[in-house]
Amino acid sequence: MKKLLNTLFVTQPDVYLSLNGENVVLLKDEEKLGRLPLHNLESIVTFGYTGASPALMGYCAKNNISLTFFTMSGRFLAKVIGESRGNVVLRKSQYRLSESEKESAKIARNFILGKLYNTKWILERVTRDYPLRINVPKFKEVSKHLSLIMNEVKKCENLEALRGLEGQGAVSYNGVFNEMILHQKDVFSFLKRTRRPPMDPVNAMLSFAYSLLANDTASALEGAGLDSYVGFLHRDRPGRASLALDIMEELRGVYADRFVLSLINKKVMSEKDFYKKENGAVLFTDNSRKEFLKAWQNRKKDKITHPFLGEKIEWGLMPHVQALLLARYLRGDIDQYPPFLWK
């Protein structure tokens, strides 16, 4: 278990939550794993199917402690929440700010800054680790360009202009993405981003990773009480989880891109894992899709120190922490939304 932002995250499988006095008790096969006072908690987030006692759910509802259930893979299941707390005030604030382009731009600016900062440090890390295998001057030039764009983003107050700056950064970053593929170059190469359908194995993996990240992020936002369909950078569109795409921007490179690159460079995926359809679309085989999902779930268990909180957490909790931080900003608890800044 892990306590962050007055939220208890229970990530161990097969843990049952029960009530003892004014404490939540974590049980596994009738063995007590932990005990925590409930008066310090605002919410409990648990992953798995084992569940919680009716007594604990009743206590949480009565005392305004939200209790949220996810599957082990991160899919949102259900939420128990007290009648006086609810999500009404939070969501009304989200909808009100989303209606204002000026207020939306203030929030969107930090999503984009997070994305640009993280992509810059992906390149800096590769430059440091593989100086003999890449074009270092080219990487340094792109890194410098990303820094210049970040300076423009900090001053920008217009959504359309912010999208233009984000696009410039994406073009620069994609221009060196292929050089970060260090092995199996005869099979895996990246010329440009192709989505529907993906036209090569790299794009097939990127599209799948982005879909998984979007689903994880949307679930995290729902768990935090936010509407994942109402965004600030990405505007409303029927059927699109716009806020999930917003939060994803800062995580896309460090979470999904680096994951895909690791599968290629460590030779986890190979040519046999894909097939091409008559229209040129490249798809996973059934077995390779299962292996990709298995590797994705294992990646979510890796630990990283969160730069804003200064605490070690699992990668899989990152969307949940960012969702909670955004909720705190929208409630007025913090001055601005702190993007995830990796280095």
UniProtKB/TrEMBL annotation:
Please give one Gene Ontology molecular function term for this protein: hydrolase activity
Keyword tags: Antiviral defense, DNA-binding, Endonuclease, Hydrolase, Magnesium, Manganese, Metal-binding, Nuclease
EC top class, as a word = hydrolase
Q: Which residues bind Mn(2+) per the record? A: 166, 234, 249
Q: Give the highest taxon in the source lineage.
A: Bacteria
Which Enzyme Commission numbers does its entry carry? 3.1.-.-
Tell me the InterPro entries matching this sequence. Cas1 (IPR050646), CRISPR-assoc_Cas1 (IPR002729), CRISPR-assoc_Cas1_C (IPR042206), CRISPR-assoc_Cas1_DVULG (IPR019856), CRISPR-assoc_Cas1_N (IPR042211)
Q: Quote the Pfam families the UniProt record gives.
A: Cas_Cas1
Look up the record and name the cofactor or cofactors this protein needs.
Mg(2+); Mn(2+)
Q: Where is the signal peptide?
A: none
Annotated family = Belongs to the CRISPR-associated endonuclease Cas1 family.
Q: What does this protein do?
A: CRISPR (clustered regularly interspaced short palindromic repeat), is an adaptive immune system that provides protection against mobile genetic elements (viruses, transposable elements and conjugative plasmids). CRISPR clusters contain spacers, sequences complementary to antecedent mobile elements, and target invading nucleic acids. CRISPR clusters are transcribed and processed into CRISPR RNA (crRNA). Acts as a dsDNA endonuclease. Involved in the integration of spacer DNA into the CRISPR cassette.
Oligomeric state and interaction partners are given as:
Homodimer, forms a heterotetramer with a Cas2 homodimer.
Q: What's the protein name?
A: CRISPR-associated endonuclease Cas1
